[in-house]
Specification:
single chain, 260 residues, mainly alpha, globular, binds zinc ion
Length: 260
């Protein structure tokens, strides 16, 4: 259980000066995973089987595109991924038999319009419905998200394992700036499953107290950010308010992309 592959990143994230160590863990692993897929692994047959099958979500295709300087590997991957998906789409859309060179409506000639509409109505629904169903399912698949979801679950397990067994880690957690709203909810919900009564209560109280204390801190920083626009405050110190907006947004939503 105390596998250093998992415990070291958890310890590091809980030592980082950030608004949410779980967001921090997620960002670090997301970057590593995108680098993995952008690197030589794109050319490995085993990886190609996975990427042809699931592809990537819009966010991660975007990150892969931005991370590859030459883009050849990404191009080769996209090529075989599209070939695979075209063959699946043809299979799912098997019931659709509309010849696009045919006139299916909009003509002044009554006869072909009637014929075209009838043919489309009879053939399209089941094939198109299967196709839409497949496309919706495929939309949710992503090789990076899959790895990320799996690993984040392990990291959450490790956080509770370390909280149970390591007094230094409990102290480390108490000294963080707490967690973002979504991760606070996740940790409280998971505590009931991972910790026994007394420990679960103590954990949830700590996480809730950290949230309230740090929300008030950031709100004060955001407030000072807005007051700095008043000419009377121009010469006063920024304090911690210069980057209060991205940190406030991260705290409220878990969106770490706005912070550097
Ligand atoms: Zn978070
Ligand atoms: Zn994704």
């Amino acid at each position: 259980m105390a596998d250093t592959i998992y415990t070291i990143p958890v310890s590091e994230a809980f030592e980082a000066d950030c608004e949410c160590p779980v967001c921090e863990l997620r960002r670090r692993f997301e970057n590593e995973t995108v680098d993995y897929f952008a690197g030589p692994s794109l050319m490995e047959p085993d990886t190609r089987i996975v990427t042809n099958d699931t592809g990537f979500c819009s966010r991660h295709f975007g990150q892969l595109y931005a991370s590859q300087a030459k883009k050849l590997g990404l191009g080769l991957m996209l090529d075989t991924y599209m070939q695979e998906q075209i063959s699946r789409i043809k299979k799912y859309a098997g019931g659709v038999k509309v010849d696009l060179s045919d006139d299916i409506g909009g003509s002044d000639d009554k006869e072909p319009v009637k014929k075209g509409l009838f043919r489309k109505k009879a053939a399209a629904p089941s094939g198109s419905r299967n196709l839409a169903k497949y496309l919706r399912k495929h939309e949710l698949e992503c090789a990076v998200c899959k790895k990320l979801d799996y690993t984040m679950e392990r990291y959450i397990d490790i956080i509770f394992h370390m909280y149970k067994s390591d007094a230094d880690f409990r102290e480390k957690l108490r000294n963080t700036k707490g967690f973002c709203l979504p991760h606070t909810a996740l940790l409280i919900e998971t505590a009931e499953k991972k910790l026994s009564g007394r420990a679960a209560e103590e954990f949830c109280d700590t996480v809730s107290a950290l949230l309230i204390k740090n929300l008030e801190r950031i709100e004060g920083e955001v407030d000072w950010f807005t007051k700095k626009f008043d000419y009377r405050n121009v010469d006063k110190d920024w304090g911690n308010s210069r980057d209060a907006l991205p940190r406030g947004i991260q705290k409220m939503t878990g969106n770490i992309d706005v912070t550097k």
